[in-house]
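Hi all, posting the design record for the shared folder.

TITLE: backbone redesign
STEP: 1 of 1
STRUCTURE INPUT:
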């Protein structure tokens, strides 16, 4: 494959993935496309890393909340046992 064929294939394949309303891609010259593609990929990676970090934080928060629920359930059970032993 020649360089010209490779570049044409690159243009065609990347363009298939760019939304029609992505003006940075469609309104810029093809000479800028490699830079734009790189920036898009970098931003996607940052977003992915941010989402992964957020998921870890949420997972940790959920684990703490589940533990707190268990503690409260045990506390309720203790109160039920105390009340069951009392004369009403």
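Okay, here is what came back for every position:
SEQUENCE:
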């Amino acid at each position: 494959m020649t360089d010209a064929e490779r570049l044409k294939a690159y243009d065609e394949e990347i363009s298939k993935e760019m939304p029609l309303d992505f003006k940075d891609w469609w309104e810029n010259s093809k000479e800028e496309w490699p830079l734009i593609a790189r920036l898009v990929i970098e931003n996607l990676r940052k977003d992915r890393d941010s989402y992964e970090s957020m998921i870890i934080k949420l997972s940790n928060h959920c684990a703490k909340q589940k533990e707190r629920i268990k503690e409260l359930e045990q506390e309720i059970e203790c109160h039920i046992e105390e009340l069951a032993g009392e004369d009403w």
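COMMENT: Helices lie at 3-17, 23-26, 33-84.
Let me know if anyone wants the other runs.
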